[in-house]
Amino acid sequence: MKLLPLAALLLATVPTFAQKARSTENLVQYAKPLVGTARMGHTYPGATVPFGMVQLSPDTDTVGYELSGKYNPRVYEYCAGYQYADKTIVGFSHTHFSGTGHSDLGDFLVMPTTGPLQLNPGTADQPERGFRSRFSHQNEVAEPAYYRVKLDDHDILAELTASNRVGMHQYTFPQSEQAHIILDLTAGIYNYPDKNVWTFVRVENDTLVTGYRQTHGWARTRTEYFAMSFSKPFSSYGSRNLSKNQVYRGFWGRFDQSQHFPELAGEQLRLFFDFKTTAGEKVKVKMALSGVSTEGALRNMRAEIPGWDFEAVKRAGQAQWQQELGKVVVESPKRVDKENFYTAMYHAALSPTTYMDVDGQYRGLDQNIHKAEGFTNYTTFSLWDTYRALHPLYNLLQPKRNADMVQSMLAHYDQSTMHMLPIWSHYANENWCMIGYHSVPVIVDAVLKGVVPAAQAQRALDACVATAHQARFDGIGLYEQLGYVPEDKSGASVSKTLEYAYDDWCIAQLARKLGKADIEAEFNKRAHNWQNVYDSRIGFMRPRLADGSFRPRFDVLSTNDQGFIEGNAWNYSLYVPQDPAGLIAKMGGEKKFLPHLDSLFTMHLPDKFFAETEDITRDGIIGNYVHGNEPAHHAAYLYNWTSQPYKTQARVRMILPKMYRPTPDGLGGNDDCGQMSAWYIFSALGFYPVAPGSPEYALGSPAVHGATLNLENGNTFRITVKNQSDKNVYVKEARLNGQKLTRPFLQYTDVVKGGELVFTMSGKP
């Protein structure tokens, strides 16, 4: 049997996808990659396919991580490499995070230029002094799998598209005797002078260049390989080595390595490739990536984009997006609703990202080469964010992919010298960012919902338990000894205690499923540790010291140095998703709990209370409710555990239009690898997973006029909304398959077996 290249298979599927797209609506038109590129969203506008390994996108500035030997706060604006307010583009690099609050990547920046060769990037206020270029948003188009912009200073039209592992550039040049394509291996996101450990380049022939780059950044030990192919032979080439203070240089000095030298190595390399172009001539570039080898990168290129048909690659990419977006077909008479919804669907399918070659090989946490047998290996696990709603969304809409993500986490565990599941990992590295051990709820939720095969359940439980017992990590040893993390020994102690307790509850649920009574009892006890940081005298969670006392200095509104991370006591005191009823009782019952919850959304939080944190800004705040950060994402749904669930409905419908708009500044905070978008998707459909690991969703108030969920098992789940309007935000009645719901909850099994949920809306509670 002859095997077709992956690219041929991709292109062969285009008619099928296209027919499917014609039979429904073109959903790609509603997804807006520019949403979130202004201010705090930290998204990128470039070309990628669902969960693609390549994110080919423009970078608009070269702000460094370091300024005068200290952290440069401005670099935070450039977590995705692009800010909508900027007026120049430095180039197009191939790897980007979507919506993060810290960063890395920006690999292999490519920039086409004309005129005298310039090998420095220039500055934003004087772009003509370097290779960067001015641009206008009027000449910029961003669609799923496609990006286009006019580079005004060079009179070049730049177009980008991508397959999973290959980025494709198409540059339309003017007539020029001095046309160049620059490959900058010094550029990077969250860059600093010593971030590059080493770079290596081979000019294989006049159309092919290979190499790799090793960096020391958020990922401490990261190696990325590339193969770069040109559609037209370059007439000449050269390089500049910007490395400094390299004491030993060997005997390479006998060669002039700046011109036409085929093998280059150094910490800071920039290369240029010269062409002569006619007016309107298109020069194309393919850049394939691999975490394994240049041979792997070449194999990826030949499999996915063997030819030079840019439009065919674009069509194939957009066909994949049409299929991805079509997992949920929503109805609304307002275009803005569809743009919000499908932009959220788009952002929710950008990460985690594929991290293996077409032959299944990938670099592991141990820096050895492994082969994924029977699953796709993924990376970019922003788990402190995504366990809340993104992975539960995958369990619903694409369980096979989420099962592969769980397998990737378990492979990470197997390769870990710490015997821990991922905390925040990317590119064969653990960067230890944020708190909790939130692989646990992702894995437990997937196992309990039958997404992960039962045969893997014991292996999953063992990994979860081992992770929860790793005493060296972030106060866990103290947590096990005292029942809480003491603030005088480990900062952000209240947040850690609360999040560990929730993760522990998840482990208890899996242990119960497997009949492990001793493990269930141990972790059920740990799941109640949230009570140990609740100060009943003031009605808030509060940091405790190692001697058992509550810390005297305490401000319930401040987000800085109060025992919490990316939130304050008012928000975090509501974080007991595993036991809202127990929390309500602990806080004195509904009589005291409801005013507290009400005030979260109605009180004013002065700027001074979040002035010292870059992760919380006015953009993402409603009252004292910080939607732009994750710890309170479940808070609006807590009314469902009281006698006033109608307030959940009103709050959700209030949050949706305030925090999400289809504009560049339309996200009220970092999208955080899709978590903000997943919150929107669930909430717009009318339900939300308050506690992953539980079989229940809490009902809210649907914002759409109707929706059909096309499930992976072949079933469809229909959401019908009667009397929908902007004023009718209250659910008068909800019926599941004709039966009236008497509680504001829905079961996961109710959805995946297919059926219909009918909401009847009203303007009154």
Automatic annotation (TrEMBL):
Names of required cofactors: Ca(2+)
Keywords annotated in UniProt: Calcium, Hydrolase, Signal
One Gene Ontology molecular-function label: peptide-N4-(N-acetyl-beta-glucosaminyl)asparagine amidase activity
Calcium keyword on record: yes
Domain Glycosyl hydrolase family: 297-762
Gene3D superfamilies hit by this protein: 2.70.98.10, alpha-1,2-mannosidase (1.20.1050.60), alpha-1,2-mannosidases domains (1.20.1610.10), GH92 mannosidase domain (3.30.2080.10)
Protein name per Swiss-Prot or TrEMBL: Glycoside hydrolase family 92 protein
Organism this protein belongs to: Hymenobacter perfusus
